[in-house]
Design a protein that fits this description.
Elements lengths: L2 E2 L5 E2 L2 E12 L2 E12 L3 E5 L6 H8 L7 E6 L2 E2 L5 H7 L1 E4 L11 H7 L9 H6 L1 H22 L14 H14 L4 E5 L7 H18 L2 E5 L3 H7 L2 E6 L2 E6 L1 H5 L2 H9 L3
Parallel strand pairs: 5-10, 5-11, 8-9, 9-10
Antiparallel strand pairs: 1-2, 3-4, 3-6, 6-7, 11-12
The chain binds adenosine-5'-triphosphate.
């Protein structure tokens, strides 16, 4: 059953669910018995003080970490242990806390690498018969050009990304994740290190992606203003445990959340 948000966006059924996830590194428990869901069309934030387990959670969802306990369900199916590229092929794309682009390559080429999960022909096939590979390349190129237009980055399409200012590199990284045409987009601190104007731009792009492509988005963010403005629901972690889960308003007024944040001087 779809529900409508105040601004008229449609939120559908559960797209991804984590159930009782426990993840430890040696003696350090990064996540303890964490459960929550992400619904189709939703913008979902994961927040919490430093070391709360946010990135670990994203790494579990994207297949980089494998929890000792718990289950991940995607599109109604329980997932077996999966490698990150298998998760990506299933329709989950992500960006990283520290930008992970190919710095010497152009914006365009970086975005093309985002198409890899969608490519059908391989190198042998390309060598044997150029036709289909060429047609495929053209189709991928068209998709990437649309993303370049959407993000307003035509002027930097040939620029090596290492030469771009930080805010633009973050935008290219978002573009690469978009190029994968994922159902679920995971953004690890998309506004970290940005000035106010860059943050406002990034917020706009996240909302536009969600509205225009219907992409479900889960993001980790430290800027509370951004989290409260952008997200439909927020899950709060602290010391690897789930502290609260609800609408921005519910979470903002939760005494346990206020305590956790005040306690670490936020
Ligand atoms: N690969 C790893 N090896 C060992 N310990 C790890 C690893 N990844 C995370 N941890 C530990 O797990 C805990 C949670 O870390 P995590 O990075 O998930 O927190 P976070 O909420 O994302 O923090 P931050 O806001 O500072 O990025 C920390 O104690 C961290 O040191």
């Amino acid at each position: 059953m779809a529900e409508l948000t105040q601004d008229g966006r449609k939120i559908g059924d559960i797209l991804l669910e984590v159930k009782n996830i426990t993840l430890a590194f040696g003696g350090v428990k990064a996540l303890t018995n964490i459960s929550f869901d992400i619904k189709e069309g939703e913008i979902r934030a994961i927040i919490g003080p430093n070391g709360a387990g946010k990135s670990s959670m994203l790494n579990v969802i994207s297949g980089f970490y494998h929890p000792q306990q718990g289950e991940v369900w995607f599109r109604g199916q329980k997932r077996g242990p999966m490698r990150p590229y298998e998760v990506a092929r299933q329709g989950i794309a992500r960006t990283f806390q520290n930008i992970a682009l190919f710095k010497g390559m152009s914006t365009l080429d970086n975005l093309m690498t985002g198409r890899i999960t969608q490519m059908h022909t391989n190198i042998l096939w390309q060598a044997l018969w150029k036709g289909p590979a060429e047609r495929e390349e053209i189709a991928h190129r068209e998709k990437v050009e649309r993303i370049i237009d959407f993000l307003g980055i035509q002027a930097i399409r040939k620029t090596p990304v290492g030469r771009l200012p930080y805010g633009l590199q973050k935008r290219v990284e978002l573009g690469r994740a978009l190029a994968a045409e994922a159902k679920l987009l995971l953004l690890d601190e998309p506004m970290a290190g940005m000035n106010l104007e860059e943050k406002e731009d990034m917020c706009r792009f996240i909302l536009d992606v969600n509205e225009e492509f219907g992409t479900t988005i889960a993001l980790i963010e430290h800027d509370m203003g951004v989290v409260m403005d952008l997200s439909d629901r927020v899950v709060v972690l602290d010391y690897g445990k789930k502290l609260a889960d609800g609408t921005p308003n519910e979470v903002r007024n939760d005494p346990a959340v206020i305590e956790a944040y005040l306690g670490v001087g936020h």
